[in-house]
Structures
1.
Amino acid sequence: FEHTFIAIKPDGVQRGLIAEIISRFERKGFKLVGIKILTPSKEFAQKHYHDLTERPFFNGLCEFLSSGPVIAMVWEGQGVISYGRKLIGATDPQKSEPGTIRGDLAVVVGRNIIHGSDGPETAKNEINLWFKPEELV
Ligand code: ATP
Ligand code: MG
């Protein structure tokens, strides 16, 4: 089975969008196989976004991800990695299509409410970073 890592970032949690976001993945037909709520440390956020170390927004991004509770999830289903990215929409909510999560619910790139793995390799690495095998059903 294909799996992806999805996180509702602190802005999505704070704005009360947990149920809305989970509902979109559920209604599509994907299966939730892992979920928890936690506030990641800044060091953990830096590990999660390690491939963006060189970007000018890296520090602010990691500060933000560690600023409050995050919902960490693993979703299962055929094509869930790439289709999950479609449900989420473009990185910049100004460029996300209406009907996508970011298109419908977010305005600025630094507060785009949700993360999704961008490929099979990152999905595997992110699931291993955020979850122990026994935390998945
Ligand atoms: P994510 O990895 O969070 O799912 P993404 O894969 O669509 O998002 P990435 O290029 O991986 O986009 O960027 C990671 C995150 O960094 C983005 O979700 C966004 O919050 C932030 N980000 C990206 N580009 C910028 C930017 N130009 N200015 C500020 N923040 C940015
Ligand atoms: Mg990304």
Note: The first helix runs from residue 10 to 14.
2.
Amino acid sequence: NKQLESGSKLSGKHILVTAGGTREPIDSVRFIGNRSSGKMGFAIAKAAYNQGAYVTLISGPTKLPAIPGVKTIFIQTVDDLQNAINENIKQADALVMAAAVSDYRVATVADHKLKKSEFDGTMQLQLVENPDVLANLEHPDNLKFVVGFAAESENLLANGQTKLKKKHVDMIVANDISKSDTGFDSDDNAVTLIRPELKPEVIKKQSKKLIAQRIIDIISDQL
Ligand code: CTP
Ligand code: CA
């Protein structure tokens, strides 16, 4: 019910959210991407907006409709994502990094459509590691709470704890991507919320909408 979903816990606050998957070009028509649908990040942006926040959403390509009232910046590559974050982080009270960021990019992007005739039956792409946007983030004074995600197919808790420290974040939303009825492209998710000094909070299969509302509740309590 709309009334229960909307409130003013975040009025006057600016929440920056990243969503969707980045794309790294191979040539003028091809790219390396991932299965992120953007649904989790969009749900978080919507939940923040419904609590009265000013929301900036930085999104990779998705099939999702725009969220009325939410300023959305569309990006493709990790470089674009970094630039969009740099431009908005100094106004943000909180950042939620739900985007599935490409770990690697193609070393040399071809400026034309690659032809099969350029290769002899096999083709090798050289990839170079992208910077870790979240781990290298400068935390300006205005930024009070940072949420990272962790997509894991095994050792969810241990890997989530490691990312909590390595990424210098206040919370990791650890996502078990080994199950097909939750996670990628699903309207549901199952996550564990990991925070320093607190017992991990396990959220069993649940709509992304309700999980987003829980994440936004935690953020609003900290701002
Ligand atoms: N992330 C990022 N920049 C990258 C890679 C990831 O900012 N180059 C962010 C993601 O948006 C997410 C968090 O870091 O919030 C964890 O991403 P994940 O892919 O789970 O972890 P990685 O550090 O990339 O490690 P790995 O993929 O090897 O598990
Ligand atoms: Ca990764």
Note: The chain is about 25% helix and 25% strand.
